[in-house]
Amino acid sequence: MHAEDVLAGLGAAVADVPGVIVGVRRRGVTDLAASGVTEPGGDVALRPDAVVRLSSNTKPLVAALALCLVADGLLALDEPIDRLVPELADRRVLVRLDGPAIDPDTVPAARPITVEDLLTMRMGFGHVVDEGPCPTVERAVALGLGFGPPDPHGLPGPDEWIARFAGLPLLDQPGAAWRYELSFAVLGVVVARAAGCGLAEVLTARILAPLGMDATGFVADPARLVPAYLRDDAGLRPFDGVADSRWLSPPAFPDARGGLAGTAEDLLRFAGMLLDDGGGLLDPAAVAAMTTDRLTPAQRAAPGAAAFLDGGGWGFGVGVVPTAAGPRYGWAGGLGTLWYSWPEHDLAAVLVTQVMPPTASVFAAFTRTIEDALAGQ
Fold it and tell me: 314 - beta bridge partners?
């Protein structure tokens, strides 16, 4: 299977986005293909090496980084984060999600938040989906903690971000429920404090540079960056340009939820490392732990998880889904990026657009094309 084959399988769906990049890594061999243009109605062809905003595809990279620090002894999965983030010690937990944001009814947390709680997004705070109003989440939005699209310059610095978050109670007891996605904002702070340097520096040193992911970082290369768009009822409108992009200067808060920019090829380098049992960067046992569902059946069935996890579960920074072609793991970015790996087939594939929300027709055709081909082998 080659990138051109997958691109051809997208069929008419490619008309739903200005341009699309597909990358495939099969048995150690990588190839890429692109179709379309960089902007609606434009004439500049989208190149396979374009730099794009990876949004939530940032999460798997930071999860792998955290596991590197666990191997170094700088973190432990079961340790409370209080040692590194004392601001979040002695948490209180809401009695009712719909309770008032100011002076709500709370109870003490049954235990501290652990590093594993952050990796599995069971910290006790995140998006509330189909559960009615939650004034505490509304308060978090008002505090500028970041509940909308990625915005590198819309957040305060890490210490101030943690201080604001510390003023809120948790929504759930630590470990009890899966909620997208604030756990990874906290994880980024924990990792940086454990490493004794900024998240960008330690991520580059431990993950990006060893894997040759030279185009990936919290600051984008303007020579290769392409614009991003927001789709609404009127069609596509600009979300982030190039000359005025918010990804052209270092952010105050390097956001582990979705702050990275990079390329399809770089994502495949990361995916290949996992397929190669860590490639010497991670222990094979850490790769297995990262790519194994950690959720209980009740947690997978809860409204928030059901809305995000496509019938699957969650490992450390990746979604894990059973399919007819064998298990797959990976994750998507809200600005139109998608990565999946099928380890039984030694195959990883990425899809890149820059349209938010992700274009369902393109995502579905991408996954269907690959899994139909794998099921026939």
Answer: 319
Residue 181 belongs to domain with CATH number: 3.40.710.10
CA distance 98 to 52: 38
Structural domain total, the chain: 2
Q: Indicate the residue among 161, 195, 229 that finishes a domain.
A: 195
* Closest listed residue to residue 122, CA positions, set 321, 320, 314, 328: 314
Q: Are residues 70 and 48 in the same domain?
A: no
Check the CA dihedral 52-36-241-146 and report its sign. negative
For the chain, residues with pLDDT lower than 50 are: none
Domain residues for the domain of 105 are: 65-195
pLDDT tens per residue across span 252-291: 999 999 999 999 999 999 999 999 999 999 999 999 999 9
Q: Are residues 336 and 357 in the same domain?
A: yes
Tens-digit pLDDT profile for residues 150-177 = 999 999 999 999 999 999 999 999 999 9
Asked if the structure places residue 205 within a domain, the reply is no
In a domain, 131, yes or no: yes
Q: Are residues 290 and 177 in the same domain?
A: no
170 and 243, same structural domain?
no
Within this chain, do residues 218 and 256 fall inside the same structural domain, yes or no? yes
Q: Indicate if 169 and 277 belong to the same structural domain.
A: no
